[in-house]
Amino acid sequence: MSQVAAYRELGEWILAYELALLKDGGSPVAAAERACQRFYRRLSPLVTLGGSQAFLARSLHRAVAEFPFLEGVQAGPTAEECLLGLDPALNDIDATATTAAFTAVLSHMIGLLVTFIGHELTMHAIREVWPEAYTSRPAEGGLT
User: Fold this and answer.
1) Which of 17, 34, 85, 124 could be joined to 72 by an S-S link, Cβ 3.0–4.6 Å?
2) How distant, in Å, are the alpha carbons of 50, 89, 103 from that of 14?
């Protein structure tokens, strides 16, 4: 499995997990906000709040190439407001496209974190937030 595919699979899992926690009335947008809040809170001690914001901003920027409707969405300044500009950006966008877009954002964030802090530390941080998460080691193709 390629790195990109492994990170996308993990991003899908995280978004689906957060969506399941919201139960009835939960939306992919609410699940994405919740996942980003949890990422911010866990990563801030490692890379500071500003670093967490920078990782999310870069992840959003990278996802815009595939999902142009994310253009107006910005990384928020706090763990309570991670994603800004969602309402205008997502008007008339269906749940399937929204889910795919936020999966891309999460997978880019995972990939960036691996680049900057390494695979082991990234996966450890993810398991601290989502203990049930399975994580791939792209180079080995196995699960860790």
Assistant:
1) 85
2) 22, 22, 8
Give the count of alpha carbons within 13 A of 37, CB side only.
10
Tell me the C-alpha distance between 79 and 102, whole Å.
Answer: 17
Which element (helix H / strand E) includes 86?
helix 86-90
Q: How far is CA 15 from CA 5, 47, 50, 93, in A?
A: 15, 22, 23, 17
The label of the residue with tokens 């995972």 reads: 110
Q: Which amino acid is at 55?
A: F
pTM for the model stands at 0.87
Give the model confidence (pLDDT) of 92-106 as tens digits.
888 899 999 999 999
Distance in angstroms (rounded) separating the CA atoms of residues 90 and 44? 27
CA angle 45, 51, 56 (to 5 degrees): 115
Distances (CA, A) of 125 to 24, 71, 85, 96, 131: 28, 28, 27, 28, 9
- Closest among 15, 32, 104 to 68, alpha carbons compared: 104
